[in-house]
Amino acid sequence: MSDPGGPAEGLADPPDLVDGATRLRGVRPGDAEALFPFVHRAPEITRWLCWDGPADLEELERRYASWRRGEPGEPVLVLAIEEVPGGAVLGELTLRFDGHPGVGDLGYWLGAEHHGKGHGGRAIGLALRLAFESCAARSVTASVKEGNDASLAVLERAGFVRDRAPGAVSIVDGDGPDGVAVHEGAGPPIAWIASLTRRSWTRAQHGEASAP
Questions:
Q1: If you ran DSSP here, which 8-state letter would residue 132 be given?
Q2: Are 49 and 43 in contact (CB under 8 A)?
Q3: Between vectors from CA 58 to CA 57 and to CA 64, what angle results, nearest 5°?
Q4: Distance between CA atoms of residues 203 and 63, nearest Å
């Protein structure tokens, strides 16, 4: 990893970060074969994403052809979430700075069979280290769709603070499964923007209370 606070363009090599049973590393084209069954025609996963999943294995291989894309200073980092030990690939995490340098946009998903095992929380923690120590991020944000309470809880445990997304509306019972308003072909709408500043993250690393 580069020095804390170094510029994003100084991150020349894929990260390799480990927290207990979870590793976060640069994605490889070969990861597509393992991850494809988790996200292809898997509405239990894709309904929470701003993506319908890959149409075929080749599409996912193209997505994973490079772990890093984008302009200098505004990278798009595509990372694999891996189990330790054993090396099984569990899901994907993206950290995007394209169009908003200094503000990382975090997204992630795990195969359904790997939910509830702590991998998401640990992967987010590692991504925050990457964002704040190696990419000079001022803040990191994550968009959460209406009804995705599990993901929102994981983000809040990592220190994120939620705010209602601009234009989000109250959900009316009966609009969709479990009272969630469903947009045709896109799953539920984005309802929350969770955010964490570098200052708050740094204070938490030192065991300090967040500023009021």
A1: I
A2: no
A3: 95
A4: 36
Q: Which two tokens stand for residue 122?
A: 């640990």
Whether 105 contacts 142, CB under 8 Å: yes
What would the pLDDT profile of 12-40 be if each residue is shown by its tens digit?
A: 899 999 999 999 999 999 999 999 999 99
Phi, psi torsion values for 9, nearest 5 degrees: -70, -10
What residue has token string 């074969």? 33
In whole angstroms, what is the distance from residue 109 CA to residue 91 CA? 6
What are the pLDDT digits (tens) for 108-126? 999 999 999 999 999 999 9
Structural domains of the chain, with CATH: 8-205 (3.40.630.30)
Cβ within 8 Å of residue 202, ≥6 positions away: 132
User: pTM value?
Assistant: 0.85
Residues in the chain: 212
Angle at 203 between CA 6 and CA 136, to 5 degrees: 15
